[in-house]
Amino acid sequence: MRTIWLAVTPLTLAAASPAIAQSAQPNAMMLAQAQDRCMTTIAVRASRSSTDNEAIYDEAVKACQALQEQLASAVRSEYPPQQAEELLTMLDDQAKPNFLNMLQRIRADRAARGAQQ
After folding, report:
1. What is the pLDDT of residue 110?
2. Angle in degrees, 0-180, between the axes of helices 81-116 and 53-63, rounded to the nearest 10
3. Stretch among 23-32, 35-44, 46-55, 73-82 having the lowest mean pLDDT
4. pLDDT score, position 70
5. d(CA 72, CA 84)
6. Burial of 18 by CB count in 10 Å (0-12 exposed, 13-18 middle, 19+ buried)?
């Protein structure tokens, strides 16, 4: 009987002890969304006072640099090396054109709302 008790005790202790909370690291998708929100926020704010798209883009890139670095790190850790580099290259290639299109949509939306008032 004593042998059974010893065998069950570690399992009982493990089941009874609270799980140690570990901080969950954001995955690439979450970081991509956060980085996109960061860029969008800068675009909305900066486009109110500036028409210089290049300056707005540069401001957004600088403001969101930490998220971009975290995203690149997450992509490299979640995907095979070749696929990660292809994905990061694609994201880099599309970043500026997508940002400039977003600026146009923001301004068009602002103009439409202004015309309705």
Report:
1. 93
2. 130
3. 23-32
4. 97
5. 8
6. exposed
Residue (of 45, 35, 34, 25) closest to 92 by Cα position: 35
Annotate the chain with DSSP letters as a single string: -HHHHHHHHHHHHHHHSPPPP-PPPP-HHHHHHHHHHHHHHHHHHHTTT---HHHHHHHHHHHTHHHHHHHHHHHHHHS-HHHHHHHHHHHHHHHHHHHHHHHHHHHHHHHHHHHH-
Q: What is the pTM of this model?
A: 0.74
Cα(63)–Cα(59) distance, integer angstroms: 6
